[in-house]
């Protein structure tokens, strides 16, 4: 199996991670969670000489969708995808929280809505969809089952942390349940690429995460 090449663009002011993912030797790629500095993403794509085959959102909070419009303007043929229970956040600034903070952001609507167990195949990459709501109503993560596996996890699981559950539409117990039942079922060496902060592994978070690790399981 071809190894993934993964580049990250960190967007201010929330230090949100956008991922540009591709297989070496191809000119197409995936763009995951375009953030609030889309010009940096476009500049990276130009430097890498890559074009997005698809634009993927893990969830619809403003810092993860702010670059969707610029991506679609630059690459209108690239379909935009998000979880089916998250779609309304794209076009409703209050639902995606930006309106509540006085900086309304919206996105073009999704071209495809994704459900648990579906597969996204683009740019020579096959990603499985898992629904892990709780940080937002319909949050999904994308799993690449290579060696090691990779998870593009948005704001579900962080290095020694988890996504916030104190926003409207959040559900803390549901978030914990999804992490334990779905992410912690993956191999320990699975690498997690989160929406903020550094990469981590499933094994490290099971052992050390103070919110959801094995030592705090009830």
Describe this structure in words.
The protein is of the alpha/beta class and 218 residues long. The strands form 3 sheets. The protein has a 6-stranded mixed beta sheet, with helices on one face. A 6-stranded mixed beta sheet has the order 7-8-9-10-13-14. It has a two-stranded antiparallel sheet with strand order 11-12.
Secondary-structure blueprint of this entry?
Layout (H helix, E strand, L loop, with lengths): L3 E8 L4 E8 L4 E5 L5 H11 L2 E6 L5 H4 L2 H7 L5 E4 L3 H5 L20 E3 L4 E4 L2 E7 L8 E5 L5 E5 L2 E2 L2 E2 L9 H12 L7 E4 L5 E2 H7 L10
Parallel strand pairs: 3-4, 4-5, 5-6, 10-13
Antiparallel strand pairs: 1-2, 2-3, 7-8, 8-9, 9-10, 11-12, 13-14
- Which regions have little confidence, pLDDT < 50, spanning 5+ residues? none
Radius of gyration from CA coordinates: 16 Å
> What does the main sheet amount to?
6 strands, mixed
Decide which structural class fits the backbone: alpha/beta
Helical fraction? 10-25%
Number of strands: 14
Helix tally? Answer: 6
Concise account of the structure shown:
The protein is an alpha/beta fold. The chain has six helices and 14 strands.
Features:
alpha/beta; 6-stranded mixed beta sheet; 6 helices; globular
């Amino acid at each position: 199996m071809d190894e993934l090449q993964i580049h990250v663009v960190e967007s201010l002011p929330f230090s949100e991670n956008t991922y540009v993912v591709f297989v070496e030797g191809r000119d197409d790629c995936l763009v995951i969670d375009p953030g609030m500095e889309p010009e940096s993403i476009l500049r990276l794509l130009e430097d890498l000489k890559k074009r997005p085959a698809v634009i993927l959102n893990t969830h619809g909070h403003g810092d993860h969708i702010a670059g969707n419009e610029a991506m679609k303007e630059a690459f209108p043929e690239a379909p935009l995808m998000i979880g089916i229970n998250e779609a309304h956040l794209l076009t409703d600034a209050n639902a995606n929280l930006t309106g509540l903070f006085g900086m309304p952001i919206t996105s073009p609507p999704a071209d495809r809505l994704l459900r648990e167990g579906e597969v996204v195949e683009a740019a020579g990459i096959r990603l499985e969809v898992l629904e892990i709501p709780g940080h937002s109503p319909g949050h999904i993560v994308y799993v690449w089952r290579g060696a090691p596996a990779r998870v593009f996890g948005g704001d579900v699981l962080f290095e020694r942390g988890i996504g916030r559950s104190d926003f409207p539409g959040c559900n803390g117990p549901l978030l914990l349940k999804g992490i334990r039942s779905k992410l912690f079922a993956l191999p320990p060496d699975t690498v997690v690429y989160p929406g903020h902060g550094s990469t981590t592994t499933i094994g490290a978070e099971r052992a050390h995460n103070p919110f959801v690790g094995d030592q705090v399981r009830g």
